[in-house]
Design brief:
There is one protein chain. By secondary structure, the protein is of the alpha+beta class. Helix content is 28%, strand content 24%. The strands form seven sheets. The protein has a seven-stranded mixed sheet with strand order 4-8-2-15-12-13-14. The chain has a five-stranded mixed sheet with strand order 1-29-28-27-19, sandwiched between helices. Strand 16 (308-316) and strand 17 (322-334) form a beta hairpin. Helix 15 runs parallel beside helix 16 and helix 19 (641-660) crosses helix 20 (718-730). 56% of the residues are buried.
Amino acid sequence: MNAPAEKKLFRLVGTRPIRPDGIEKVTGKAIYGPDFVAPNMLQGAILRSPHPHARIRGIDTSKAEVLPGVKAIVTGADFPELDSAMVAGGEAPANIKYMARKCMATDKVVFDGHPVAAVAATSATIAEAAIQLIEVDYEVLPHVIDIEDALRPDAPILHDDLFTQGLPELPTTPSNAAMRVEVRRGDAARALSEAAAVFSGRFTLRPVHQGYIEPHACVASWHADGQAQIWCSTQGHFTVRALTAGILGMEIADIRVVPLEIGGGFGGKTTVYLEPVAVLLSRKAGRPVRLAMKRDDVFRATGPAPGAVIDIRLGAGADGTISGAEVEFKYTGGGFPGAHEVYAGLHCTMSYYNVPDAHIVGWNVLSNIPTVHAYRAPGAPQVNFAVESAMDELARRLGIDPIDIRLRNIARPGDTGGMGMPHGAIGYAETLEAAKAHPHYSAPLGPNQARGVACGSWGNYGGPSTAAVSVAEDGSILVTEGNPDIGGSRASMAIMAAETLGIAYEKVRVVVADTSSIGYSMGTGGSRTTFATGKAVIQAAEAVIAILRERAAKQWNVAAGEVQWGGGEAVHGDRRLSLGQIAAASGTTGGPISAQAAIDPHDYLPGFGVHICDTEVDRETGQVSIVRYTALQDVGRAIHADYVEGQIQGGAVQGIGWALNEAYVYNQAGLLDNPGFLDYRMPVASDMPMIDAVMIEVPNPAHPYGVKGVGETPIVPPLAAVANAVSGAIGIRMCDLPITPDRVYGLLLAAE
């Protein structure tokens, strides 16, 4: 639903047309990563480490090499020597040395499932048999899984060449603490000492997986001219191109990446795991090679969202005004360093509240699990869980309504965010006010039920984007852009192009082009695509309109400045020429009609969400049920309303799963005990009530149609909203996720 209601401003923006890719997907005809087949293709398999931490003393591939049907084998020795240079190609630059080691181990393995060798053969059966014949001589080393254990002085060190970045002085001894980041403003210690109420607590979360249904898969083909082609499931094929080139020491222009349909990503498909390995296998074999992960490979060897240990002290005056905050959070980094989530956590910690005195410190801590990676608002849900739980406690102690205490402290238009970025036309206050007025907030509760409220934000992003708009001879429109469609971007681009041109939605077709067919676009993620690539589409459409006016002027023998455009046609006095009529005459008025826009917009704005959650606790078993859930969000303006509601609902469900069920579980041997959907418990439809998604539209004035970005924000509040509700139901503050039945029952038993 929309709130508040406003007068309709556009013909198409905000409507709910049929998605252009829907029929192909629901009929099973769409080609996803595991579906793609190339002529003369070989099947690949990867040998993975059975140990979480071990030195590789040697690899003997001789038995596998002589197995009939085996065409190529690669190990870490086949990868070029790399230094620690940074390479662009994703949400942030990547350390290419560590990216390569993640794809294939060299001197040691650092997590259960770490690749150590790969085989290409004439069948999948032969490839699987071949990797079993490869003998690896391991020297098993002590391992460490948990954050606090990894920071102990006697902890096993994962990398002897890794020294903590961000300290006042570079240390002389290696550490599992890869990075420390800090923000300090005012005097937090003084502010807390003078506060009327202070909440102090420690919150913990386990790593969780993105849970996409489609596993990673790719096909790579090495050409005789030294160029390579890759077909894969990815959120950013330009990222795949850049990272593969960097890892293999190739020129970027020598790699062409074709994006296939994507069966879920949520941030987890913005990097590479298989692609460089498949290219090397193809180069050795002289034939295309397919690599695809099994489900346990996905869980054991691709990046989960980081677990966390968060210490917080939050103080407020008697009227509920936040006076000071001290937050220290430690995020798991996994087997190799990367601080993207830590930076995001630092930004999101108090960015949506006005806190004059704050001291925030974040750590990236390595341990023997897969290298963590982006998961929908990467780094924000973890620290938000602690902040919003603390806000709930302050409201309870001060006797203030949970929404009122937030309204008293929120960032408003013109305020400066936690990292110094000013907030423009934001709708945080409107979202909170709509939440308080929503019937859910005042609805009666039943026995053993309680209501939780939590807020959250995500900064959104712009970033480089390229799009082209071309007019066919019959007046139909082709939009070519460089962002894989993971959340309805084809429909959104078609709506914005049709709105701009003044034509019917059905007249527009959108193609996601490969890396050799369109200019660079940053990956699909960060809630940037509809904003940034949408802007590029609009600008290209506007450039096409200028050409159409010129062509009409030629036909009428008037100046182009005298021709107007409206309703999908050129207008000069009483004369009209439709887009189709102008296109039909293009061969005699100047040739094909098309335009391209390449932009890098930075006038994006954050999104804000407020979630209301009702839970019921079975005190005899500890089972928690979600009985009602409402998610309200400042969406800027919804381009395709169905997709926006779906994003809000999907993010809420994923956050609820994080709160109640999901966690990586490692045993004493450092092996993952739940690498599959049977044991890794994700919520399904029968676990959830209908989630009421409420869109608060406060448009971004820097975008022609008011877009801000939607996809990340809805996963940020649910962890705290659920925890606050359960805490209210049992009278005990829930500080550790997931809130499993045994944990709840144990707390109730201890309290009794």
